[in-house]
Design goal:
With 160 residues, this protein is of the alpha+beta class. Among the domains are: 54 residues, Jelly Rolls; 33 residues, no CATH class. Helix content is 17%, strand content 35%. The protein is built from three helices and eleven strands. The strands form two sheets. Strands 1-2-3-10-5-8 form a six-stranded antiparallel β-sheet. A five-stranded antiparallel β-sheet has the order 7-6-9-4-11, with no helix packed on it. A hairpin with a 5-residue loop joins strand 1 and strand 2. It starts with 27 loop residues before the first strand and ends with a strand. The mean pLDDT is 95.
């Protein structure tokens, strides 16, 4: 195993770090108590990865079983209990638990408890997931071919 080829040609480094304070308001909020914080997006990482903090309200449905053809997805539980599906079984994941789902891996998640839960979602490489998060509830209400097309455009293939 070796490091990738250098991508930065300079010799002195540069000032280019991006800081996001813990008190930054979430980009998305729902009436059920859900919140999504865009910690590192496709745009801010140059497509290297996407990192999102998701605060789920009690009994939040999450996402049904699906897979991605172009991105991996990882889950890190910050608080509460999140039910994670690893393609084979459902796991009650708690603070500090981690699940890595390679490209093509079946997975799902939800909060079945009466308490809120919080997790980090990491996508690699970084895809522009923000539109998906912002419009998925609306598209699900519309349903039909429009929902199917929306999911495919966002590399989300659901297993019905």
């Amino acid at each position: 195993m070796s490091y990738p080829e250098p991508r930065y040609p300079g010799t002195d480094g540069e000032v280019n770090a991006v800081f996001r304070g813990a008190d930054t308001e979430p980009e998305l909020s729902s009436p059920s108590g859900g919140r999504t914080h865009y910690l590192a997006t496709h745009a801010t990482t140059g497509g290297e990865f996407g990192l999102y903090k998701v605060d789920m309200g009690p009994r939040a449905p999450g996402a049904a079983t699906h897979f991605h053809r172009t991105i991996s997805e990882s889950f890190y539980i910050l608080s509460g209990t999140v039910r994670l599906y690893d393609g084979d079984r459902w796991i009650s994941a708690r603070q500090g638990d981690f699940l890595y789902v390679p490209v093509g891996g079946l997975h799902a998640f939800r909060n079945e408890s009466d308490d809120p839960a919080s997790l980090l979602l990491l996508f690699s490489p970084g895809a522009p997931r923000e539109e998906y998060f912002e419009k998925v509830a609306e598209m699900a209400r519309r349903g039909g071919q429009e929902l199917t097309d929306f999911r495919i455009r966002h590399d989300s293939y659901f297993v019905e």
